[in-house]
Design brief:
The chain is α/β, with parallel strands linked by helices. The longest helix has 32 residues. It is built from 18 helices and 14 strands. The strands form 3 sheets. A 6-stranded parallel beta sheet has the order 3-2-1-4-5-6, sandwiched between helices. The protein binds nicotinamide-adenine-dinucleotide. The site of nicotinamide-adenine-dinucleotide has 26 residues, from helix 1 and helix 5. The site of nicotinamide-adenine-dinucleotide (NAD) has 26 residues, from helix 1 and helix 5.
Length: 431
């Protein structure tokens, strides 16, 4: 099978490299020529554990993976073409911006030369794949292509493993032919007994949004419980632990913190609610989750402001929206840093991988190459992202270099008693 993947972002590139690992000839296409040039020289445009090795293996050794700026050339004899472009929030509106998807659908329609399956892997509102079908059908006869919805569930930071060992694969089709081709594509995963959910296109589109929205709801829920714990002197970590042991609840996505961020949950929650509203259905729980998560930035920012003198210097450790990625889209750590900056505080910061991305967007912070340099002479430390290298900081050393021994552990990675023994004022989340 020959595969074409349009959009070489986190999803497109990881999918492309993993399909090459399965043994398929895969061409990844992107309109960003610099990105394609970089990829052709073996450089991954973002940080994702394991990507450099996989890229180099299939670009240089097996040669199963190639990169091209030309969809026209890539589509010759393609069996399956995946749409993996971004679907961000439309500015000032709650809906998903589908302009990249429509453009690609139109481009695909101009380049189909033999039967192929067009797969929507981008996260798109219900009804989008059928619209893609209509766009392509304007130029291409119905028997020359089929549409499939095959949402992606990988997580940045563990994307390769998530792709190679997914909890499930969802295949939404409206005909047997395309379903069989998709089942053949994912055959390497059947051997690992990965559950395959075969369903309609609409159901598949909803599964993706419902899954992300449910996980966001879990996070929003435990964060509000954390607020209550702080007021009444309870410990949210123990609450989460005891709740999570219950199999009906499960322990994942039940860690209190600064709220969810990243390129998916924030936009997907509002886009899902907006799609439902358009269809006359109110997803009131999701609206509350969204508001609760938004309010969290100010809530946590104000908590810090109440404990740290105005105009002070604050060190942020961790800028990416979660560990093991350099992605800073909707990072709660950065949003809280911005809130404090807007309130007159000065910001030092350090992140193991996300410094370049943050520097490009925010020139108003002081950047350092390690945690210790970033902590020099600061009035408070905020742990914004739980990178492993922040889990074992030497607080004897840090105690000697900071101006004030104050720490806001937004991710609850430290033990209060141990830090208090070292004369730190320690503020956890939900305790
Ligand atoms: P991204 O922004 O990292 O990458 C999108 C890429 O598409 C960019 O490189 C862009 O240049 C390219 N592109 C845009 N228009 C194009 C065109 N006309 N032709 C060729 N290339 C084009 O996006 P992402 O984070 O990989 O997300 C892609 C989709 O997958 C989104 O719908 C997202 O919601 C979904 N998703 C993302 C994740 C994740 O963790 N990032 C996980 C699951 C699903």
């Amino acid at each position: 099978m020959k595969l074409v993947i349009v959009g070489t972002g986190y999803v497109g590139l990881v999918s492309g490299a993993c399909f090459a690992e399965f043994g398929y000839k895969t061409i990844c296409v992107d309109k960003d020529k610099d990105r394609i040039e970089k990829l052709n020289s073996g450089k991954c445009p973002f940080y994702e554990p394991g990507m450099d090795d996989l890229l180099s293996k299939h670009l240089k050794n097996t040669k199963l993976l190639t990169f091209s700026p030309s969809l026209k050339e890539s589509m010759i004899d393609a069996d399956i073409v995946f749409i993996t472009v971004g679907t961000p929030s439309r500015r000032l509106e709650d809906e998903a911006d589908l302009s990249f998807v429509w453009t690609v659908a139109d481009e695909i329609s101009q380049n189909i030369n033999s039967y192929c399956v067009v797969v929507t892997k981008s996260t798109v509102p219900v009804g989008t794949s059928k619209e893609i079908k209509k766009i392509i059908n304007k130029k291409i006869a119905k028997d020359k292509f089929d549409i499939v919805s095959n949402p992606e569930f990988l997580r940045e930071g563990s994307a390769i493993n998530d792709f190679m060992r997914p909890d499930r694969v969802v295949i939404g089709t409206d005909c047997n032919k395309s379903e069989e081709i998709m089942r053949e594509l994912y055959r390497p995963l059947f051997l690992r007994e990965t559950p395959i959910v075969s369903t309609t296109i609409e159901t598949s589109e909803i599964i993706k949004y419902a899954s992300n929205s449910f996980l966001a709801t879990k996070i929003g829920f435990i964060n509000e419980i954390a607020d209550l714990c702080e007021v009444v002197g309870a410990d949210v970590q123990d609450v989460s632990k005891a709740m999570g042991i219950d199999n009906r609840i499960g322990s994942k996505f039940l860690n209190a913190g600064p709220g969810y961020g990243g390129s998916c949950f924030p936009k997907d929650v509002i886009a899902f609610s907006s799609t439902a509203k358009k269809n006359g259905v109110e997803l009131s729980i999701l609206n509350s989750v969204h508001n609760s998560n938004n309010n969290r930035i100010k809530k946590i920012g104000d908590k810090i402001i109440n404990k740290v003198d105005g105009g002070s210097l604050i060190c942020f450790l961790g800028l990416s929206f979660k560990p093991n990625t350099d992605d800073i889209r909707e990072s709660t750590s950065i949003k809280i840093a911005n809130y404090l900056y807007d309130n007159g505080y000065k910001i030092n910061c350090y992140d193991p991988k996300a410094m370049d991305n943050t520097k490009n967007e925010f020139q108003n912070y002081n950047y350092f190459n390690n945690s210790y340099d970033a902590c020099k002479n600061v009035d408070a430390i905020v742990i914004g992202t739980e990178w492993n290298e922040f889990r074992a900081l030497n607080f004897d050393e840090i105690g000697n270099i900071v101006k004030k021994r104050k720490i806001f552990d937004l991710r609850n990675i430290y033990n209060q008693i141990e830090l208090e023994k070292k004369d730190f004022e320690y503020y956890a989340t939900g305790k």
